[in-house]
Design goal:
Blueprint (H helix, E strand, L loop, with lengths): L10 E2 L9 H4 L9 H9 L2 E6 L5 E6 L5 E5 H6 L5 H14 L3 E5 L6 E5 L5 E5 H14 L7 H14 L2 E6 L7 E6 L4 E5 H6 L16 E10 L3 E9 L2 H8 L6 E11 L2 H18 L20 E2 L7 E3 L4 E3 L6
Length: 327
């Protein structure tokens, strides 16, 4: 055996042969190449560049890109060899289209690659999943996978805002849940969606909505082509109520005008119901009929005309209806 002809490009080696020392593929096998092999290679888009290592292996040169791929003669004769250079180029292009940087193969799992995401974190994914994302992105305008590291940091920050600490993945294996620890020390699995909206309680300290601190809120809505509206209600987390629970139409602009702290949810509910009853009795003309708002917000009542604000006395600690003579 002698040194093989110098490849034009780096030699791409199939995963089943990567355990073999590279020195073997740098050694030329001196046996002749049967003429029928040349014809088979041409039909399949290759030229036989050389024989290396032993009588079973060839270096194929791709007609399309000129890249060199190690392949068994048996594979050439019985199957359709894949050009390693073309495959690498496709994977790099798919990663680029998704906004990633292809770093290389995963040595433990040959179908997986490592990518650097725009945030700088390293992501391990199957090359095929990146290609599917690229095709889907062209159709739907998607830019890439969500970074697991950044997502975990966001979940941890969200939990801290609510007095919880993110411990890790759900012990029951549900990807929509995480394991958290409350300030009281209680460990609890909580749905990510519930942590986002605040719609849950601690099973350890037993703080349910009726006993937990709450608030009366006043919200304003600017509805395109329909005007302005006011909503009065109560919630333990008015911001979460506004952002996640009202199911507003895309053309609605919303903001929180007032948040009046109430000691408990029970007292907040009682205060709110009394206020709605008083408004309905004293200012029925300010009450908006459900048919006029159900198409842009997912509530059944508690929507008023903007003029209702002139009828309310609002301070940092309470909200009341002004006396009729002062309205």
């Amino acid at each position: 055996m002698t040194a093989p002809k110098k490849p034009r490009k780096p030699l791409h080696i199939p995963h089943r042969s990567r355990h073999v020392p590279m020195s073997k593929w740098k050694t030329r096998y001196n046996g002749p190449v049967p003429e029928q092999w040349h014809a088979i290679a041409e039909e399949k888009g290759f030229r036989i560049h050389d024989r290396v290592g032993d009588r079973y292996h060839l270096i194929l040169e791709c007609h399309r890109c000129g890249g060199h791929t190690l392949q068994k003669a048996f594979v050439l004769r019985t199957a359709n060899p894949i050009c390693g250079a073309c495959q690498s180029a496709r994977e790099e292009k798919a990663a680029e289209d998704c906004g990633f940087e292809l770093l290389g193969r995963n040595e433990d799992k040959y179908l997986y690659r490592q990518y650097r995401m725009p945030c700088g974190h390293i992501l391990t994914r199957q090359a095929g999943s990146i290609e599917r994302l690229r095709r889907k992105g062209k159709a739907e305008g998607l830019s890439g996978f969500r970074c697991p590291t950044c997502h975990s940091q966001q979940l941890a920050a969200m939990a801290r805002e609510r007095g919880w600490a993110l411990i890790g993945p759900d012990p029951e294996g549900n990807s929509n849940y995480r394991l958290y620890r409350h300030g009281c020390g209680n460990l609890q699995r909580i749905a990510i969606a519930n942590m986002m909206t605040g719609r849950f309680g601690c099973s350890g300290c037993g703080e349910c909505w009726s006993a937990a601190p709450s608030a009366i809120y006043v919200m304003a809505f600017d509805v395109e082509d329909e005007g302005n509206f006011i909503k009065i209600g109560y919630s333990r987390d008015p911001v979460s109520r506004l952002r996640h629970q009202l199911d507003l139409a895309p053309y609605v602009k919303a903001r929180l005008l007032h948040r009046i702290p109430i000691a408990t949810g029970h007292l907040a509910q009682k205060t709110e119901k009394a206020l709605h009853a008083a408004i309905a009795k004293a200012h029925p003309d300010h009450v908006v009929a459900p048919a006029d708002f159900r198409h842009w917000i997912n509530v059944r009542s508690e929507i008023y005309r903007p003029a209702i604000l002139d009828c309310l006395a609002i301070t940092k600690t309470e909200i009341t209806l002004k006396a009729a003579g002062r309205a």
